[in-house]
Amino acid sequence: MPAPVNPFKKALCEGQDLLIGLWVALANSHAAEIVAGAGFDWILLDGEHGPNDIPLLAQQLAAVARHPAHPIVRLPMGETWLIKQALDIGAQTLLIPMVETGEQAAQIASACRYPPEGNRGMGASLGRASDFGRIKDYAETANREICLVAQIESRLGVDNADAILATPGIDAILIGPADLAADMGYPGTSSHPEVKAVVEALIARIRAAGKPAGIMTTDPDMLAVAKSAGIRFAGIGSDVGLLMSGAAALAKASRQAS
Ligand SMILES: O=C(O)C(=O)C[C@H](O)[C@@H](O)CO
């Protein structure tokens, strides 16, 4: 029995639709399960800015498994040991932040694949990835179902985008406008015209390299720019944002009603 098919990777490679996702940063399996059934194509379990660790991420992966929303796991950084642990708990799609060079792209790509394609350590028979050893052909078939998304979110990353895109094993690029804006001198202003121009040009380069481009943005104007430039996946909000805005609106409405 082979490793399970990665539906997100399949949809990116074979489909044309825009895949909509939600950032999930509450680091809670109940919250993840609630939004996984809401109708998103994917959810991003955020181990970079959410208070997540490997055990919490494993709980969330298990909690959302019965829903169609594909869980993408973002790690704090592209450390080889952390990539190994994330894959062994069953993450099939990883988002690695702040990828800035071709060398870094090669390192994270190698960490995601078993030899001879890479240097991922053998141990999935102990982990959820192989259903704890029940998927007998996991080691032979896992590589093709891993989807590695590199995040480009700095001027250096943009400058080196061609080298990152040319790296075998980098399956897609997600643009991070918030960090990109900060690096460009516009912290907190990810919808700055100069940022939008860089994002638009970067999407064109990603597409020209034959790879899918994605973005995370809650700014409608930035999303419109990205859509017109041809992105294939977009994170358009977060569980934290939904909870904050919903709670505040209810509190305000209840005061007005009383
Ligand atoms: O730089 C960015 O933009 C991102 O990486 C997304 C941020 O982490 C944050 O906007 C997620 O809500």
Automatic annotation (TrEMBL):
<feature type="domain" description="HpcH/HpaI aldolase/citrate lyase">
    <location>
        <begin position="20"/>
        <end position="244"/>
    </location>
</feature>
<dbReference type="InterPro" id="IPR050251">
    <property type="entry name" value="HpcH-HpaI_aldolase"/>
</dbReference>
<dbReference type="InterPro" id="IPR005000">
    <property type="entry name" value="Aldolase/citrate-lyase_domain"/>
</dbReference>
<keyword id="KW-0479">Metal-binding</keyword>
<dbReference type="GO" id="GO:0016829">
    <property type="term" value="F:lyase activity"/>
</dbReference>
<dbReference type="InterPro" id="IPR015813">
    <property type="entry name" value="Pyrv/PenolPyrv_kinase-like_dom"/>
</dbReference>
<dbReference type="Pfam" id="PF03328">
    <property type="entry name" value="HpcH_HpaI"/>
</dbReference>
<protein>
    <submittedName>
        <fullName>HpcH/HpaI aldolase/citrate lyase family protein</fullName>
    </submittedName>
</protein>
<dbReference type="InterPro" id="IPR040442">
    <property type="entry name" value="Pyrv_kinase-like_dom_sf"/>
</dbReference>
<keyword id="KW-0456">Lyase</keyword>
